[in-house]
Design a protein that fits this description.
Elements lengths: L4 H18 L3 E4 L12 E4 L6 E9 L3 E7 L9 H4 L4 E9 L2 E9 L1 H17 L12 E5 H4 L26 H4 L4
Length: 180
């Protein structure tokens, strides 16, 4: 099964909507009315108290899920704190034949900012490159990092130590606690 990036995004967002609906929350997919809103994909609301939170969803089929940013060649993502406005859900889609298996990794706003900041700094400054970065790299988040695991050191680079101390898989409470 060959899926376009747009199809992958729609599948990931829909899967997250279903997970939040199962937990009793109302969810609006902003992309249904505003084409690719930059800072969030979903508005999740608690129908009992009116609290709401904006959620960003990033979906990928490789071990490196793109975050939708580019960093400067020095590893800094400009205005990162303003661009990340709520929790993020990274959806890893394992596509084999006609089957899709999904894993959900949920990070708070603060965890997302810290993981992106430190991994971009590592990629730009500690990777032991033979030459300098000549273009702004796309920011990706490794599934292993979302599991709280460090990347393996190689001859080319030292390990990156994930800023997460444990897995973020299925940690829906990082969203639902904001709605209590």
């Amino acid at each position: 099964m060959k899926l376009t990036n747009k199809q992958k995004g729609v599948i990931g967002e829909t899967a997250v909507v279903l997970e939040l609906l199962k937990r009793g929350f109302d969810v609006i997919n902003i992309n249904n009315s505003y084409q690719n809103y930059k800072n969030a994909d979903l508005i999740c609301m608690n129908p009992n108290n009116g609290k709401s939170v904006m959620v960003q969803v990033k979906t990928g089929t490789t071990q490196n899920i793109l975050a939708g940013f580019t960093s400067e060649t020095n590893g800094i993502v400009p205005n990162l704190e303003e661009k990340i406005i709520g929790p993020w859900v990274f959806v890893f889609m394992n596509v084999k034949d006609n089957n899709i298996n999904m894993e959900f990794y949920i990070l708070t706003k603060e965890e997302t900012i810290e993981l992106i900041k430190t991994s971009c700094d590592w990629y730009a400054n500690a990777y032991n490159r033979k030459c300098e970065l000549k273009s702004k790299p796309m920011v990706g988040v490794e599934v292993d990092w979302l599991k709280g695991e460090s990347s393996k050191a190689t001859k080319l680079h030292p390990e990156y130590k994930s800023t997460l101390s444990e897995t973020s898989q299925d940690k829906w409470e990082k969203i639902t606690n904001l709605l209590d």
